[in-house]
Amino acid sequence: MFDSYNDGECPQCKLAPGPAVAMELNREDHWECPVCHLQMLGSGGQVLILRERGSGNFKEPRVLAPHSIVGAFMCRQSTEDPWGSGGYFRSAEDLRTFLEQEVDAPDSTED
């Protein structure tokens, strides 16, 4: 069953088999996955999944999203307003399609 709420874990990595991956705060103050570099913006009641991937430039000391994000509603980044919501994800397939078609591809040159 699809859960449209986020507790600080990477939504892309959560779709794949394997362990959950906690998002971390990067130096641009976006939540970023240390594995696939997907970025989210926000906290509280809503997080936006961004179209641009991060660069892995994380803050020190580490700040983990599960300490700040609990039950936030996941939304896609708007195409008109980069700080606005383009709607929520209705299903895992909806999220997967957004990740595959609208989010930058992960950098395949990384280790």
Instruction: Return Rg in Å.
Output: 13 Å
Mean pLDDT: 91
Q: Which bin fits the share of residues in helices?
A: 10-25%
Number of helices: 2
Could you say which structural class the secondary elements and strand pairing correspond to? alpha+beta
Oligomer state equals single chain
Overall number of structural domains: 1
Indicate the overall shape. globular
**Major β-sheet, in short?**
7 strands, mixed
Q: Provide the succession of SSEs.
A: EHEEEEEEH
Give unreliable regions as ranges.
none
Question: Key features?
Answer:
111 residues; alpha+beta; 7 strands; 21% strand
What's this, in brief?
By secondary structure, this protein is an alpha+beta fold. It has one domain. The protein is 14% helix and 21% strand.
Explained architecture:
With 111 residues, the protein is α+β, with helices and mostly antiparallel strands. It has one domain (5-101). The protein contains two helices and seven strands. The radius of gyration is 13 Å and the shape is globular. The mean pLDDT is 91.
Topology at a glance:
Layout: E1 5-6, H1 11-15, E2 24-25, E3 31-32, E4 39-41, E5 46-49, E6 72-77, E7 85-88, H2 92-101
